[in-house]
Amino acid sequence: MLKLSIIGTGNVAFHLARAFSAAQGVNLQFVAGRDLEKLKTFEEFSATLNLNKELEKTFYSDVILIAVSDASIAAVSQQLMESKALIVHTSGSTAIQILDQNKRCGVLYPLQSFSKEKELVYKEIPFLIEAKLQDDLGVLKLLTESLSANYFTVNSKDRAALHLAAVFSNNFTNHILTEAKQLCNDHNVSFELLKPLMLETVQKAFSIGPENSQTGPAKRKDTPTINKQLSALKSAEQKQLYTLLTQAIQNYYER
């Protein structure tokens, strides 16, 4: 059985701790974090789970999972140099080389958005894995299999590219939806009315390709409609976003 420790108290650490505490073949021993109040939220996962600020307690696990902010990974990993465990971070944009000072190191990046109030279906989440040593790649495969998740061996450069693509497809799209919801609220119409359109948009993007399913005034170069919609926007930021995306769409189809 793999003995596992997790360092971090954010959304990723919370979800992975909950999942691994119920996984077959994994013994979640320890969760470490600076915020004792946040650590208390992990108590529900196991009566035997050790919660503490002292990273030294993690040294005797088989795997130590660092689920902290990208800026903190290096500092945390330096405190684990005396451990013989496999040291693994969960970042999409951070290269494995940041863990080079550790004898054994790897990456376990779940390509998904995490929020504490939303349950996750792990068999639908791709995990991107990487390890310095071939044997440790096998350990990461065992960890993902314990969650019934799919794993893909991806190097740091390609993982960073996927993370960037995820920012465009998830974070930027979510902000655009936030602006769309604000427009609906401003005019007292239901944001829910857009749901069938959005589901169809995503479905077509993955069935025929987003570049083949683009429609709308920008694609048609419908200048009267574009100008009319621009004048209807009251926020300078919305006008700027509309103009930038319109130009980007037109530039793409003029290539």
Overall description:
An 8-stranded mixed β-sheet has the order 3-2-1-4-5-6-7-8. It is of the alpha/beta class. The protein has helices at 11-21, 36-39, 73-78, 134-146, 156-186, 195-207, 217-220, 223-232, 236-252, and strands spanning 2-7, 26-32, 50-52, 63-66, 86-89, 105-110, 126-131, 150-153. The model has no long low-confidence stretch (mean pLDDT 95). The N and C termini lie far apart (55 Å). The radius of gyration is 22 Å and the shape is elongated. It has 9 helices and 8 strands. It folds into 2 domains: 2-154, 3-Layer(aba) Sandwich (Rossmann fold), CATH 3.40.50.720; 159-252, N-(1-d-carboxylethyl)-l-norvaline Dehydrogenase, domain 2 (Orthogonal Bundle).
Task: Give a brief outline of the structure.
The chain has nine helices and eight strands. By secondary structure, the protein is an alpha/beta fold. The mean pLDDT is 95.
Helix and strand composition category: alpha/beta
| Residue fraction in strands | 15-25%
> What is the number of independent domains?
2
Spans of at least 5 consecutive residues whose pLDDT stays below 50 are none
Order of helices and strands: EHEHEEHEEEHEHHHHH
Largest sheet: 8 strands, mixed
Secondary structure tally, helices: 9
Using the CA coordinates, give the radius of gyration. 22 Å
Q: Helical content, roughly?
A: 40-55%
Mean pLDDT: 95
Q: Looking at this structure, what is the CATH superfamily of the largest domain?
A: NAD(P)-binding Rossmann-like Domain
CATH fold topology of the largest domain: Rossmann fold
Shape: elongated
Strands of the largest sheet, in order across it? 3-2-1-4-5-6-7-8
CATH class of the largest domain equals: Alpha Beta
Number of strands: 8
**Second rung of CATH, namely the architecture of the largest domain:** 3-Layer(aba) Sandwich
Distance between the termini: 55 Å
Protein name: Putative short-subunit dehydrogenase-like oxidoreductase (DUF2520 family)
Domain Pyrroline-5-carboxylate reductase catalytic N-terminal: 3-83
Domain DUF2520: 125-248
InterPro entries: 6-PGluconate_DH-like_C_sf (IPR008927), DUF2520 (IPR018931), NAD(P)-bd_dom_sf (IPR036291), P5C_Rdtase_cat_N (IPR028939), TM1727-like_C_sf (IPR037108)
